[in-house]
Amino acid sequence: MDQQVLAAIERWIDEHAEEYISDVQAFSRIPSVSRADLAQPNAPFGPDCRKMLDFALARAAELGFEPVDHEGYCGTARIGDPKNALGILGHIDVVPEGDGWIYPPYGATRVGDFLIGRGVSDDKGPALAGLYAARCLKELGLLKKHGLWIYFGCSEETGMDDLQYYLKHYEPAKVSLVPDCGFPVCVAQKGSLGGDVSIPAGPSMKGFHAGLAANMVPADAQATLDVDADALRVALAAQDVAKEDFTIEAGGSGCVVKAHGVSSHAADPARGRSALHMLSGALAGCGLLDPVSAKAMAAVEALTAGCYGESCGLEREDPVSGRTTTNFGMASLKDGRIYVNLDARLSVEEDPDAAEARYAAAAEAMGFAWHPGHKTQPFHISVDGPECTALMEVFREVTGRDDPPYAMGGGTYSRYLSTAISYGPGLRDTPRPEGLPESHGGGHKCDEFAHIPSLLTAMKIYALALKRLDEAL
């Protein structure tokens, strides 16, 4: 490594650190949950994502980039030759905030070396680290052969329709980095299977709802029942369930019962505690529901019992990516039926079509009807390719660490673009804000946090990696 170049990059980052932190806070204070159901002209993911995209492109222009709006699906900030460019693929949409926050969800609160708020780590802080890395190279004159562009996506959390639209209408960069996972290099991403199952709700069920997004373990679930509130309290107490896990309120001729679990990312559902599973299990065993409603709750309890596909025909494991994971992130009552959504991350050796057939058969055996959703193929790159080799070298040179390349269950833009490589910014053993509960702070959880020094290290890695790719390609 050229020590003079490294020193120049480090000085630039030190000089611009506070400006960067301020930008992360400004971006993260805009609620930008992707809402295709609120689509408007030039705002396919709703007005909040439109506002966020306008803000991002305006800020990029202030920093010396050419802003390009791609019909509201996404935007790019460009310097140099766009036909011979390296890219950073970040997203500026976020998952819903949910409940249980200690800090304001959109406050981007600075607490010592941390920022706390929705989007600070997934993915506004990392996307801006990529933007600032590109700005650093531009201002230091370190790029020789390629242009650069930074992609601001508006639907990464809700199916990646933004990138799919972009790829249908525009040419991608030659090679792109995706700052939306962990360091060093993600060489494999699991395939996916999604969709709904439904079952008759029965007359006892007047309302049923769980979860905020398919890719989050549901922290809250509730049912409106034609059941006496006091009788339900006695029934749940007889089951010896934790009193603090449930809230029962009288309402109308019946009651509303709520279950309180712990959210986590769908790629690692074992870290969460599904309120949907808790609620369905408690109601299945309460003895107060009509037979059809009791059967529905027992079926939902059985379906949602496992995190690794063992309850629904999807259990698989391979040496590259590990075990298939299953998350049942949302449920609702519509037209007399209870619908439950699946978000499965399939091991890379699994065939999504075969997995769908097994899941449909298992669900039907429990009494559900299967309503197909999405399927994606697994993604796998060679650890010996020139891009992976260069990125691993940069990571080791900057950090002094020898972490190996890895596979993951989370899905990033790499899934839809073979020339995009998921690369950071997460580092193992990153510290946590003092006093923050273990159930808070991770991806898609309440009190999402970002460690500022780690983001600045990521910025340095991205700057050096782009320079190295500029030289090598």
Describe the structure.
Helix 1 packs across helix 3 and helix 3 (124-140) packs across helix 10. Strands 10, 11, 12, 13, 14, 17, 18, 19 and 20 form a nine-stranded antiparallel beta sheet that branches. The longest helix has 26 residues, at 3-28. This protein has 473 residues and is an alpha+beta fold. It has ten helices and 25 strands. The chain has two domains: 3-190 and 379-472, Aminopeptidase (3-Layer(aba) Sandwich); 192-375, 2-Layer Sandwich (Alpha-Beta Plaits), CATH 3.30.70.
Arithmetic mean of pLDDT = 95
Number of strands: 25
The top level CATH class name of the largest domain: Alpha Beta
CATH superfamily descriptor of the largest domain:
Zn peptidases
The CATH topology annotation of the largest domain reads as Aminopeptidase
Number of domains: 2
Cα end-to-end separation: 17 Å
Assigned CATH architecture of the largest domain: 3-Layer(aba) Sandwich
In brief, what are we looking at here?
The chain has 473 residues and is of the alpha+beta class.
Labels describing this entry:
6-stranded mixed beta sheet; Alpha-Beta Plaits; Aminopeptidase; 25 strands; 25% strand; alpha+beta; 2 domains; 10 helices; 473 residues; elongated
Question: What's the arrangement of secondary structure elements?
Answer:
Layout lengths: L2 H26 L18 H16 L3 E5 L3 E6 L5 E7 L17 E3 L2 E3 L7 H17 L6 E7 L7 H9 L5 E4 L2 E2 L3 E4 L1 E10 L4 E6 L9 E6 L3 H10 L7 E6 L2 E7 L14 H10 L6 H13 L13 E2 L3 E2 L1 E3 L3 E4 L2 E10 L5 H14 L3 E8 L2 E2 L5 H14 L6 E3 L11 E3 L2 E2 L22 E3 H21 L1
Parallel strand pairs: 3-6, 3-7, 7-23, 8-24, 9-22
Antiparallel strand pairs: 1-2, 2-6, 4-5, 5-25, 9-21, 10-19, 10-20, 11-12, 11-18, 12-14, 13-14, 15-16, 17-19, 18-19
Helix pairs in contact: 1-3, 1-10, 3-10, 6-7, 9-10
